[in-house]
Amino acid sequence: MYPVEECDSVSDHYPQTCACCGEELKGFDPNPYRHQVVEIPPIQLHIEEHRRQQLTCLHCGEKTRAALPETVEEFG
């Protein structure tokens, strides 16, 4: 159970009437039963495309493709 200070929101729910006789209820519970719902937000993909251009040498005709920068994983 997380401390109440770490909750993003807190909602108090009060019974309106007695479960036994149906009489209207009033007051405050100093020690309410706590129930927490923890949700993990959806993962957001970050897609980055790196285009390795291939150029042809005008002198010899050899085709050369650019390498990926060292900071970019080959398979990722």
From TrEMBL:
Residues 15-61 form the Transposase IS66 zinc-finger binding domain. It holds the Pfam family zf-IS66. InterPro entries: Znf_dom_IS66. It comes from the Bacteria. This is Transposase IS66 zinc-finger binding domain-containing protein. It comes from Microcystis wesenbergii Mw_QC_S_20081001_S30D.
